[in-house]
């Protein structure tokens, strides 16, 4: 049988779902768990709208099978609550239409955890993984840097 | 969403993986080894790739090593390009790999997957071609260690049921001076026009190229010209005269433009390494 019942650790919760082995994690998160924060964009690993964190690293959930996520810690935008990068996005107005925002925030959140002293080269390298069609790139960069500098929003 | 179903297996040893492949094939399946799986997921979505039995090799310890043993650096085929980039045990490989796709995607794309990919860029192979790396391959005939230049001709010539386990690269190549540049049509992301990787070892240049032809290659004929005495222009002219064919001529760049870019890249490589 191609369908499997799997247990995932998502946003600190243990969730059991039945998926086709060929289902992407993006499809399972949205369709089986109702976590619609990860956005379907290109479905081809190019745009980054579906970015989540897996074991602390950014992952394009359209490029990962749900069955590959077993035993890993998955965090979607729904799993972040009032983090510094979320506050910085608001403060810097780092979005317009908002479709790319969950993916950008998840990538930035992981960047800040993995490289708390990230320089411009690392920031650029990481953020090239996501596309914002409203071109809010400058504001997004400002948001990341404000967290790196540990600025209080509004300060 | 993939328009087909498959069974999914996670063997824990090379022996189990090879036997599983053989068993599934005997059952009439089309098994596929899977590490990052990005190509199956993206090409499968548009019916350009298919498998009904996926064998995920990421739980096999030998496929995840990254360590020196004696004078050789061993890198497992199931390591992601990001893992290799973060650890940086082989700076030329790090630099070349860091230009593949984008940072997040490289967290899923693996070394073995890139080398064995259908997409013709396969840039991660360039440093290995230059460094005379050895490939550890396992299959129905057991474990073999093969010189990369004997098994990579345009693509990795794996037989059915064979799996790339590790690469082994001698330290002196890893420490050798190198030059690499990826030229795109525009901006810093997107598909490459040409990627060049060059290395100087024992006072000789080696050069490997991706994006010029529909396959990556190292050309010893071109290297022979580059290592001759004479003006830089003569040496580069000679190298360009013995390139493999065909030269790509597509939306990323005409054949003439690619050769123009390559000429300049060869010049930059020679200046950097002389």
List keywords for this structure.
heterodimer; A: 155 residues; alpha+beta; Ubiquitin-like (UB roll); DNA polymerase, domain 1; five-stranded mixed beta sheet; 5 helices; 32% helix; B: 274 residues; Uridine Diphospho-n-acetylenolpyruvylglucosamine Reductase, domain 3; Enolase-like, domain 1; 3 domains; five-stranded antiparallel beta sheet; four-stranded antiparallel beta sheet; 12 helices; 14 strands; 34% helix; globular
Based on CA inertia axes, which overall geometry of chain A fits?
elongated
Based on CA atoms alone, the radius of gyration of chain A comes out at 16 Å
Low-confidence runs of chain A (pLDDT<50, min 5 residues)? none
Distance between the termini of chain B: 51 Å
Number of strands of chain B: 14
- Looking at the overall shape, the CATH architecture of the largest domain in chain B is 2-Layer Sandwich
The sequence of SSEs of chain A as H and E is EEHEEEHHHH
Task: Report strand order across the widest sheet of chain B.
Answer: 4-5-10-6-7
Continuous helix count of chain B:
12
**First and last CA, distance of chain A:** 57 Å
The portion of residues assigned to helices of chain B is 25-40%
How many strand segments of chain A? 5
- Fraction in beta strands of chain B: 25-35%
Classify the helix fraction of chain A into a percent range. 25-40%
Q: What is the name of the CATH topology of the largest domain in chain A? A: Ubiquitin-like (UB roll)
Average pLDDT over all residues of chain B:
95
User: How many discrete structural domains of chain B?
Assistant: 3
Largest sheet of chain A: 5 strands, mixed
Total count of helical runs of at least 4 residues of chain A: 5
Domain FAD-binding PCMH-type (chain B): 1-176
Pfam family, one (chain B): FAD_binding_5
Protein name (chain B): Xanthine dehydrogenase
Keywords (chain B): FAD, Flavoprotein, Oxidoreductase
Question: How does this structure look, described?
Answer:
The complex is a heterodimer of chains A (155) and B (274). By secondary structure, chain A is of the alpha+beta class. Chain A has 2 domains: 3-77, Roll (Ubiquitin-like (UB roll)); 84-148, [2Fe-2S]-binding domain (DNA polymerase, domain 1, Orthogonal Bundle). Chain A has helices spanning 25-32, 84-91, 101-114, 120-127, 137-148, and strands at residues 3-10, 13-20, 51-54, 57-60, 73-75. The longest helix of chain A has 14 residues, at 101-114. In chain A, 48% of the residues are buried. Chain B contains 12 helices and 14 strands. Chain B has a 5-stranded antiparallel beta sheet with strand order 4-5-10-6-7. In chain B, strands 11-12-13-14 form a 4-stranded antiparallel beta sheet, with helices on both faces. In chain B, strands 1-3-2 form a 3-stranded parallel beta sheet, with helices on one face. Chain B is globular, with a radius of gyration of 19 Å. The model of chain B has no long low-confidence stretch (mean pLDDT 95). Chain A binds chain B through residues 1-2, 4, 20-24, 27, 43-45, 48, 51, 57-60, 62-65, 67-68, 107, 124-126, 128-130, and chain B through 1-2, 4-8, 36-38, 41-42, 44-45, 54, 56, 58, 82, 98, 101-105, 107-108, 188-189.
